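Provenance

Sequences were taken from public entries as deposited. Structures were produced by running a predictor on each sequence independently, with no templates supplied. The record for 8-oxo-dGTP diphosphatase from Dyadobacter luticola is shown for reference.
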Amino acid sequence: MIEVLVSEKLVVRVPCAVIEHNGKVLAGQRSPALSFPLKWEFPGGKAEKNESDEDALSREIMEELNVEVEIIHELPVTSKDQGWREIILVPFVCRLKSYEITLTEHEQILWLEAPDLPSLDWTEADLNVIDNYFQYLAAKK
Ligand SMILES: Nc1nc2c([nH]c(=O)n2[C@@H]2O[C@H](COP(=O)(O)OP(=O)(O)OP(=O)(O)O)[C@@H](O)[C@H]2O)c(=O)[nH]1
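Predicted structure for 8-oxo-dGTP diphosphatase:
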């Protein structure tokens, strides 16, 4: 009998924040020292075992930007197959609850008006997030 080894793909759940403030949206540029160097992303990161998406989001945003956020709306989950693993992005539209941002991981952040978001070089999964964010904005009008 031939045995087939099927390796399970790693599935990584990544809550992230589309942070709105004064009519603009925050984009973060990944550090040159990390995976996907210098790509743009929405701040956030991998949820830990037994951690809710919301708790992971708050923790990651505090770790990366040193601010508190309030969730306004959950956007559709989007996934990206990276070959050896699958990233499940769980995006939340948020507003700031505190305002003194201190960067601990990102190379830089930019505040952009929504229509300008696609001008940056995003990680692939984020293109879906941006589309879904545009749909959310259109539905609010
Ligand atoms: N926070 C965040 N991560 C994203 C986005 N899009 C996307 O593909 N990712 C990927 O999701 C993973 C989040 O991991 P992380 O922020 O907790 O940790 P990390 O940079 O050390 O990641 P790594 O596992 O690739 O080394 C990264 O690989 C990142 O590239 C996004 O919009 N926000």
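Helices lie at 53-65, 124-140.
The first strand starts at residue 10 and ends at 21.
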